[in-house]
Write a structure and sequence with these properties.
CATH topology: C8orf32 fold
Low-confidence stretches: none
Pfam family, one: Nt_Gln_amidase
Enzyme class: hydrolase
Order of helices and strands: HEEEEEEHEHHEH
Strand content: 15-25%
Number of domains: 1
Protein name: Protein N-terminal glutamine amidohydrolase
Subunit structure: Monomer.
Keywords: Hydrolase
CATH superfamily: Protein N-terminal glutamine amidohydrolase, alpha beta roll
Strand order of the largest sheet: 6-5-4-1-7-8
CATH architecture: Roll
Largest sheet: 6 strands, antiparallel
Amino acid sequence: MHLQPFLYHPYYCEENIYKLCETITGINGYNKELFAVFISNEEKKVPIMSQDLPENTGGTVVWDYHVIAVERDAHSSVIYDLTSILPQPCPIAQYAREGLGPASTWRFSRKFRVVPAALYLEYFASDRTHMLEAGSQIDYQKPPPPHACIVSRNGETMTLPRYLDMTDGAPESADGRYGQIYSETAFMVEFGGVAGNGQA
C-alpha cells in the first residue's frame, strides 16, 4: 500500500472522505470549495482505475460505489481518491484519464452525487451495517476503522443509502442536503475536466 497523507482505512471510502473533509475544512483560512463525491449507478457496478488494495495494487476495481473528494478554486479542480495510486491531490484531467478512463467503453455508465463538504459533515452517518457479513450482527466483511461510527449532527445513525441512490428522480431534500446527481460528462463540465481521457 502507498503512503497516505490522510486518515485512511481500506474499504470504508465514505468515512475516509468524511475525515478528509473534516481535516481540510478545519485548516485555518481555508477558502476553496470542497465536495464529497459518490460514484455509483443503478446497477451498483462502477469501474475505477489505478486502485491500490492489498489484493489489487494499481489495477481496476469494479465497485458497487466509490467516494472521492473534489476541491475547486478559481483556476482549477483537483481530486482526492484515497484508494488510488495517483497523486493526492490529483489534477482532474489526470484523474479523468488514469482514474476513470474511457467512459464510453464501459458497460455501466457512472453517475456522480456531489455534496458540499459542509453538508456532508452535517448530514452523513453510517452505522456500518452494510459491511456486516450476511446474517451476522458482529462479523464484518472487512475490518472496520478504529474510530467510532459517524453520527449526523441531527442524531441520525445511517444516512449512507440516501447518498447511494442514483436512480432518475432520486429523492433529495428541498435544501439539497444530499447533494446533486451528475452524469460523468456533466460532472467533468462542472469541474473543468473532460470525460474519457482528460483531453479536449
